[in-house]
Amino acid sequence: MVLAVRAATTCALVLALTACNGASRTSGAATGGSTYTLMQMNLCLSGLAGCYGKAAYPAVVEEAVARIGEARPDAVTINEACRGDVARIARRTGYELRFSRVTYRGERLRCVRPGGRGLFGDAVLTGAAVQSAASHDFEAQAGIERRRWLCVTTRDGVDVCTAHLNTRMSTEVAGNDAQCAEVAALLSRRAATHAVIFGGDVNRRRSCAPEGAWTRTDSSAGQAPGLQHVYGSGPLRSPAADVVPATHSDHDVLLVRARLTARR
Fold first, then answer.
1. What is the pLDDT of residues 208-224, one digit of tens each?
2. For a designed S-S bond to 121, which of 101, 133, 200, 241 qualifies (C-beta 3.0 to 4.6 A apart)?
């Protein structure tokens, strides 16, 4: 549960960027809906990737905490995360956490430089209580890292999903295309019973959204533009995207707000 005291404190500071959760839900009532905000991040936390020098650990974690505190999104999807780091982010921001580990060269990868930060993977943070969570390897795989998807169902009736797909390198293109199709099928199934929003680094510019869903991307980003996507299903309408620069990652932050309406 997002802490009411912290939300009230940060609302005045970030009014120009976005309404805080309480204010946005109140103002949306008059139009038959409430504002739902998703923040998508790729934090490059493994300690192995070439981008890790830019992360300047622990500055990358501090920056993530600050960005979440400024925007107060309803949910945050995080790729290239470490279990200990995202647990720290969740504690400091007041969100619930679900984490999905990634297998690397046939083994669970532990984050390094420094160690002791737990396994490498993806995460979903939510302001609303989590009712259930599911995670699974994609059927299609390419390269040395087994990619996975993670979805949670929250008490406010929204499913929040994330995934970090294979790259478009020559040896991984087929994996990326097949995983993209799996994402579309996954979101389509879940949209039959819940409002669904997805945020992830899909490593491609063409959308993986299922039919009937909208797409917003970080195409205006100063770093790796167009690779991070957010998709939303029917009850989430009129989406608007902002890109927030990130100093300590090789991806900027994608922030998408939509109007959450009642299911028909």
1. 999 999 999 999 999 99
2. 101
Q: Tell me whether strands 33-42 and 103-104 are parallel, antiparallel or unpaired.
A: unpaired
Name the amino acid, one letter, at 46: S
Question: Helices then strands (H, E): number in the chain?
Answer: 6, 15
111, exposed or middle or buried, with CB in 10 Å at 0-12, 13-18, 19+?
buried
What is the DSSP secondary-structure string of 99-166? Answer: EEE-EETTEEPBP-SS--S-BEEEEEEESSPEEEEEEEE-SS--SSEE-EEEEEEETTSEEEEEEB--
Task: Estimate the crossing angle of helix 59-71 against helix 83-93, to 10 degrees.
Answer: 40
- Residues 78 and 123: beta-carbon distance below 8 Å: yes
Return phi, psi of residue 185, to 5°: -65, -40
d(CA 261, CA 264): 9
Tokens 């922030």 belong to which residue? 255
With left for phi above 0 and alpha for psi between -120 and 50, is residue 17 left, alpha or beta? alpha
pLDDT at residue number 38 = 98
The whole model's pTM is what?
0.88
Cis (ω within 30 of 0) for the bond into 73?
A: no
Tokens 């996507």 belong to which residue?
229
Q: Is 7 exposed, middle or buried (0-12, 13-18, 19+ CB in 10 A)?
A: middle
Cis omega (within 30 of 0) on the bond before 210? no
| pLDDT > 70 in the chain, percent | 87
